[in-house]
Structures are given as structure tokens and as C-alpha cells.
Amino acid sequence: MKTVTKYCKWLKILLAGIFFLVPAFPVSAAPGEYQQCTNTADCIVGEFLFNDEYVPVADADCTLTARYPDGTVFINSATLPPSADGWYSYDIGTSGQPLGLYRSQICCTTIDGYMCLDKSFTITQDTAESVWSYDNRTISSFGNIVQEIWTYSDRSLSGFGTLVSDIWGHTSKTLSSPTLDNGATLATTDTVNSVGTSLSDISLQLTSVQNDLVTIDSKVDSLQTSVTTIQTNTDNILAKWSTYSVTDILNYIDSLESELGNNTQTCTDDSVFGQVQCLIDKWGTNSASTIYNAANGAYTTATALRSELNFNGKSTTAYDEIITLKAYVDSIENSIGSTSDTSNTASIFGRIQQVKEAIEAIDNSTLDLNDLLEKWGSLSATDIYDKVKDLSTDIAAINSVSNVENITNNNITQNTDLSELMNQVLAMKALLSTNRTLLETVVSKPIITSWLEEGSIIFKSLITNPSKTSTQTVPYLYYFPSEVKQENIIKKSPELEIKFDATKSVYYASADITLKPGGTIILEVQVEDIWTIPQEKIDSLKKQADELFAPLKNTSYFAQGTTLHSNILASLDKITILQKQAKLPEDKIIGYYETKIELDSVNRNLESLKTIVSSAGSIGTLSGFIGGVQAISVWGIIIVLVAGFAFLAIYIRSLTPPKPTPPSLITPPVYSTSQAPPSQPQDNGIPPPTKPRASPKIHRGITIAAIVGLSFGLSSSVTYQIFQSRPQKSAILPSVLSATTDATPTPSQKTEPSPTKPPQEPTNTPQITPTQTPTPTLSILKKVIIAPTNGNKINLRSQPDSNSVLITTIPSGIEIPIYSEKYNDLGEKWLQTSYDSTQGWILSLLVQEIQSPAPSSSSAPLSKINIRVPSYDTVYLYSKPSFNSSVTHKLTQDQTAEILVETKRWVKVILTRINVEGWISQDFIERNLP
Q1: How far is CA 436 from the centre of its chain?
Q2: Which of 124, 127, 132 lies closest to 43 in space, CA to CA?
Q3: Beta-carbon neighbour count of residue 31 at 10 Å?
Q4: What is the pLDDT of residues 732-769, one digit of tens each?
Q5: Contact between residue 392 and residue 410 where contact means Cβ atoms under 8 Å apart
Q6: Helix, strand, or coil (residue 91)
Q7: What is the rounded (10 degree) CA torsion for 686, 687, 691, 694?
Q8: Is 752 in a helix, a strand, or coil?
Q9: How big, in percent rounded to 5, are the helix, strand and coil portions of the chain?
Q10: Secondary structure element (H or E) that encloses residue 199, with its range
């Protein structure tokens, strides 16, 4: 019975040890319901933002993006204002919005990184409680709702009273249904609102056109005012010729000549000749030739009239010259016309109206082309053919660019391939853009318009010389996407050369194109379609994932394999969807970068799947079972069991008394004759005294406590070491040991010699002391600059993970080296770098790449550039590569500078004339200076 009790105690101890060692696995909480919003009140969507210490973050850059239930954009990156308690919110107007689920997310950029949170919400109709919000109304009784609705006592639910006459007595009436009794339809409010929206869009486009023509309109108005003044002065002279003195007439002539100006003036002068020069700059000499000739005639006549009055006074010749001057002024006035002139009127206002109508026609054709591209996949081949043929005819009628007959030709048939029709539509869009540029702006330099076509991928550029009198040479330069290599180029125009830009690590096409007056040329480069992942490859990856997943069924790896297998299939399906959604060539290239991220994720998951499949190969053995998902738990249980049984055996053995030695086997000691035996106590029949022993209960308790403590301590230590020895997601870079190590340990000054051996003389063997461990030497892949953020610094972490240990922070604007690049499990790109003798990882989104190494302060700048300042704008130099940083200098005219540092979007320059440094956008840089 006592033995059974002992074993029961030990069994309880073992079970308790197993209970404490088995880890508790986390259980994910089910997602809550979406936020409910009604269409009768605004809805506030927001979230609190805290850092790792639960301190509110009030300086983050947070935005909200939401989509309608049909997937179209509802709110596009709306900025969320911060508050002191870390609350970021957005007030959404729900009135009139469609009912359903609005997929939404809040994304915030902080000094610690970038994060997004699902904030989807639903818009529903108001509930019954909101309808019956009064005490005297219930679900079964209306209370006084009828009186409150109809207001008058003679109206009820069964009788309208004077309601009909009251409704039709008002001037504003709407219908809820467009169908009449006779089957005809009327316009409803929705129809009118839809038309109003379309008209608003057209109005915005026309406003853009008006803004583009506002300069020429104002010049024509000023010209008309000047001519009216001259006309008034001339009429006054003729009307009062007999009463005016010569001095009075000369004063009128002075005023007339001041308004007229002279033929050396430019568009900036406020005179008749100045305004005429604006018209010449805008539309050439043909459109303003009549006005210019009349102005020249008026100027010559006014000069002759002044001479005649000075020499002969009010003579008949002077009067005839006044009549001639008036005729010239009338001619100018007729050539200007009035604002009521149509596009067929031969006047300046008629020309303006003609340009406006041409731009409107271009915009309408552009809208038609965009609509055709949007519906391309849903239209039949016959419908596409008819629309392309009609649009080609319309565009050919309004086109003013020469040598583009191959774009506007309508020699297409119903057998024409859809890819060819698509390419013609894309080319017509580019042609319309060129025509609009010619009409809207004062153009003197050649115009370059680029677009993409199908047929692999074809990069095309249309270059036209707007000048009607001079030949111009165009330095053409076109950079290809970074994926394009020399071997990917199928064919090119003979005028082009393909070169490699080492600073940007991309290929580009270049040529010097000479165009005659009004000349046009189309250049093209055909490249392999390297931006599409073949469906055969996608199917092969799916098959590989299925084959790897099959052996994991009925194993301990099944759950882990299911997750990886599902992620692989989801990523491959997303790749297929993204490629199908890319209708246009540029959409295909843009979507490729997203599909590449998904493909990299597939490859990583496949490698992980291969690893666990190889581990599952020995699943029938003990080591294979232990190597499963719950390896730590299994090892802990085994160690507890083994240690418990071992110590149980030791304890049981300690309780068993040793066997007594037989007396016959005891050999009495032998003493020499010179030695006397030690005195022995006399045996008087009394047993010798025994050594006192502890109580059995105390002994048992101490032993049990010691065994339990040793068991748990040993098992916990071994389990911890197993856990620590498991490979982590990202290994920390190992330290490089010094090549010099200790050959012989240096003894301590306090070491004493061994008592069994005499001290020895020290030898002359030199002692090699350890050297300081140097920082690992890594090759520099590239250099980057820390981009400005809200906190003007970014985090340097121990691993390529936002949750890894924060080592230090790096201020913005600092140049740092990059040793390697890595994508983590979330698809984020991280860069390995070092700062202040400390290595770590930074997020690639927070840096800007330097195109070429930055020179030291004592070295010469990279190259000279010209900062081009537009006539309508001002260019600023900034202290950092960001428009949000402080301005170091303002430029109002072109200026030469020298490059210090260059990134893809920014250049740090020095204005040597005034010794000022700063960052400037690449948009204002002009290169190739001598």
C-alpha cells in the first residue's frame, strides 16, 4: 500500500511538470463586425495611434482610402488630421451614397515605419427605431404621423384632399418614375443629375481650354481697345478739321502714334504693333498679315502727316493723309472683328473661335478614344472596327500635323487584327495630344509625344517641327525600363542608337533628328514582352505546389503545409488577375512590378514547402515525429519523463538498506610487535551507541523537493537551449574573428604553484595577446540618402523586420552605404547598411538612391548643368531633397551650376557665382553643357 502511495505521488509530480512545460498556443480572435453607417448622417472613421510604449503618436502622416461597393475609388488617400491623443479620423458624408460594404484602410507613416489597418464600413438605410422615434408611434400604430405628413386635416391615407392641386401649383416638379401610361418616358431627377454631371465634366474641360487661350484673348482685347482709341482720334480730327489748329491736330497725332507703336516692338509692349506681334507668335504671319500691313501703312501715313503739318500746316495733302490713315485704322478694326464672329469669319476673333472649336473637337475625340479603350473587352470585333473607322475619319479632319497619314488612315477592314486596331487607337490619342499642344501654346521648339503599342512592346515617339520657316535639330533621348537589356530589343528605327547609362543602370535610345519646317518623324523600338509571366509558368508552379503538398497529408506538417499551399495558390491567382486586368501596354508594365512581388512570395513559399516535405520524409521514425511542428513541446515532455524516472530509481535505491557484511569475511587488523593495539571498549553486553538519524518524513520531503527541483531545472534548461538553437527568420551577420589568437594562456598574477610540483623557471616563449575584433568588411552595393520624413529620421534595426530590435536612428539627409538587399516575409524590401560604426537594416521606402558617388568637399564636382527657369515660374533650392524642407535660394532666371550629389528625383548643386548650395528637382535640370 505504501509503495502504491509513493508511485501516485511521483505520478502527480510528473503530470504537474508536463503541465507547466507544455506551451500555450495563441488563438486568434475572430474579426468583429464592420462599422455600421447610415445614409442619413455623416459617419466618422478613425483610429488611435500609439507607439511601443503606448504613448500617443501625434505627428504621423495618415491617409484614408475607400472604395465603393463596386470597387471604384470613393476616397483616394485623404489626409487625416492628427490630434494630441493620437486620434486620426475622417468625416465621411454618406448622404446619397450607394448602400453596401466600402472596403477601406487607414495607412500611417511614422518614424518607426509604415503600417495599414482595415477600416471597412457599411452604409445602410436608417433603422425602424429612427423612423418611429416619437412616443406616440409604434410598429402597430401610426399615432399622429398622418397629420404631420399631410399637415392639413382634409388629407388622410385614404384621401388626398387638396394635395394634387398643391403639388401642381408649384413651379418645381419632379417624377419618381419615367414611365407614363402610354408607354412614353420622361426625364427623372436621376437623369437630369446624370446629365448635369456630364455637363460639369465638359465645363471643366472647356475651362481648361479657356485658361489656355486667356492670354491671346486679353491681347486681342487690348488690341481692339488701342484701335478704338486711334479710330476716335482720327474721327475727331476729321470732324473738327476746320476748327482745330495745327497744334491741336499734332497733339492728336502724338496720341495716335503712342497707341500705334512701331514695327520694332515685341509681344511685351502695350501697343498695336505689340499685340499684333503676339498674334504672329501664336499663329504665324498668315493669320496676322492683314493687320500687320495695315498697321505699317498707318504708321507710315502718320509720320508723313506730321511732316506735312509741320511744313505746310492744314493743307489739302494733310487732309488726304488723314483720310488714308482712317482707312488703315478701319482695315485693322475689320481684321480684328468682334466677339460675335463665328469660326468662318475672316477675323482674329473668328480665328480664336476656330481654335476653341478645334480644341473642343480634339477633346471630344479623346473622350471617344478613352471610352473605346475602356469598353474594349466587352465590344465585338465588328463594333470595334466601326468605331475605329469613324474616329479615324474625324481625327483626320481636325489634324494639323503633317506626315501622319499612317495613323489617321481608315484603310482598315473587318479582317484587321484587333492588336492593330488597338495600336491605331493608341497612336491617334498621341496625335490628338500633339495637335492640342500646337493649338493651345506658343510653340517654337519641336514637340515630342511618346506612347506604347502592342506587338511585344513597342516604344514610339512622334516628333514634329511646328515652325513653318526654319529647320530644327532635335536631341532625342528615351530611357527604357530597367528590365530592358540589349538582347531584349527586337528591332529599332535606323536613326536610333541603343546605349547604356552607367549612372542610372538603364539602356536608352538616342539620336539627333533634323526636321524641315513643318516636318514630322515617328521613331520606334520593339522590345520583347518581358513584363508578362507566361501562363505555362503559372500552371507549372501550381502543379509543383500541389505535388509538394500531397505527401504532407496525415502528418504533423499538414497544418503548416496547408498555409503555405494556400498562400502559393492565392499569389498565383492574383498574378493571373493582374495580368488580365492590364488592357494597355503601360498598364502591363506597371502591373508587372506588383506581379513580381507576388512571384517572389511564391518562390519563397515553395522553398519553405520543400523544406518541410524533406523533414516529413522520416515521419515514421521517432526523430521524424519529434522534428514536427510541436518539437519543443515533445522534447520537453520526453526530458521530464526520462529525468523523472531516473531520479525515481535513485530515490528508491536510496531507501533500500545496504546488506550487512558477514563477520567471517572481516579480517582483523594486524599490528606489529612494537605497536600496541588501540584500546577497545569493553563489551559488557551493551551495544555501542549509534549515530542519530533524521526523521524519515523530513528525509523523504527533502529528497522529493530536490528531485522535483532538479527535474524541472534540467528539463527547462534543455528545452530553452533547443528553442534558442532553432534557426531564426533572419540571421544576424556573424562577427569576423581576428586572425591572431592566444597560443598559450597568460597566467594570472595571483596563480599559486601546484603543491605537488616544484616551481619551474619561466620559458622565453612569447605570449600572443588577442587583438581587437574588427568590423566586418563588406562590399558597397550602392549609396543612398535618407529621405525626409515627419520625424526627420528613420530607424536602424537589427533585422529586416519592423518588429526587430531598434539599434539607433539615422537623421534625414545623411549619405550611407548599402551592402545588400532583402525581402522579408511581408514582401517589404530592406537594405543592409552601417551608420556610426553600427550595422543594421533600414526600410528601402525611406531612402533615395544616389546615382553616382558624391565627391568630397575638396574634390571637383561631377559635372556642370544649367538650371532652366520657366518664364511663368520660379525655381527654388531646398536644404534637403524634399519640397517640404526649407528654401536656401530662389532663382528667377536661368543659371549655371555644378552637381555635388544626384538621386533619381533630386540633384544637390552649388551656384559657384554666389557660393550657395541646395537641392533642386530633376525637372529643371538641363545637361550636356560644354
Answers
A1: 30
A2: 124
A3: 7
A4: 333 332 333 333 333 333 333 434 343 343 333 333 33
A5: yes
A6: strand
A7: -100
A8: coil
A9: 40, 20, 40
A10: helix 189-239
Angle formed at CA 840 by CA 834 and CA 842, multiple of 5 degrees: 95
Beta pairing class for 121-124 and 447-454? unpaired
Q: What's the grid cell of residue 236?
A: 475727331
Do residues 798 and 841 touch, judged by C-beta distance below 8 A? yes
Torsion 246-247-251-252 (CA) sign: negative
671, three cell numbers: 599490528
In the numeric block, the cell 489626409 is attached to 79
Containing H/E element for 527? strand 520-527
| Residue 580 CA: distances (Å) to CA of 85, 595, 736 | 45, 12, 50
In whole angstroms, give the CA distance from residue 290 to residue 296: 10
Tally of residues, the chain: 930
Consecutive 10-residue averages of pLDDT for the chain (930 residues): 56 59 46 76 88 82 91 88 88 87 90 84 69 50 56 55 54 48 46 42 43 56 72 74 80 80 78 75 64 79 82 82 82 75 73 76 84 84 85 84 80 76 88 81 78 89 87 92 90 92 92 91 91 90 90 85 91 91 86 90 92 71 47 68 79 65 46 46 47 53 62 58 46 32 36 39 37 57 76 85 88 86 79 90 84 46 77 80 82 86 84 85 75
Written as nine digits, the cell of 257 is 502714334
Is residue 495 within 8 Å of residue 458, measured between CB atoms? no
Distance CA 525, CA 860 (A): 38
Report the interhelical angle of 418-440 vs 381-398 (nearest 10°): 30
- The confidence score (pLDDT) of residue 163 equals 54
Which H, E and C letters describe 149-168, residue by residue?
HHCCCCCCCCCCCCHHHHHH
Cα first-last separation, the chain: 107
- Phi and psi for 314 in degrees, rounded to 5? -80, 80
Name the nearest CA neighbour of 836 among 903, 745, 775, 921.
775
3-state secondary structure of 880: coil
The rounded distance, in Å, linking the Cα atoms of 356 and 339 is: 13
Q: Which amino acid is at 790?
A: N
Question: In terms of Cα–Cα distance, which of 625, 606, 633, 622 is closest to 555?
Answer: 625
- The H-or-E segment that residue 890 falls in is strand 887-891
Q: Taking a C-beta distance cutoff of 8 angstroms, is the pair 220, 349 a contact?
A: yes
HSE-CB at 502 with a 13 A cutoff on CA atoms is 2
In angstroms, the CA 75 to CA 211 distance is: 28
R_g of the chain, CA atoms, integer Å? 46
Q: Locate 608 and state its grid cell.
A: 519553405
Specify the DSSP element, H or E, that contains 460.
strand 457-464
**At how many degrees (to 10) do helices 316-336 and 285-312 cross?**
160
What is the identity of the amino acid at 621?
T
What phi, psi does 803 have (nearest 5°)? -95, 0
Strand partners, 510: 477, 497
Distance between CA atoms of residues 215 and 279, nearest Å: 10
C-alpha cell at 909: 548643386
CA-nearest of 770, 765, 768, 771 to 743 is 768
Closest by CA position to 233, among listed 305, 294, 171: 305
Query: What is the residue whose three cell numbers read 505746310?
Result: 312
**Selection from 213, 488, 449, 473 nearest residue 354 by Cα:** 213
Please enumerate, as own/partner, the contacts of 257-266 that have beta carbons within 8 Å and a separation of 24 or more.
Answer: 257/299, 257/302, 257/306, 259/226, 259/229, 259/230, 259/233, 260/226, 260/230, 260/295, 260/298, 260/299, 260/302, 261/299, 262/299, 263/295, 263/296, 263/299
Residues 6+ apart with CB under 8 A from 324: 297, 301
C-alpha cell at 48: 488611435
Residue with the three cell numbers 543659371 = 895
Sheet of 472-479, strand order:
472-479, 506-515, 497-501
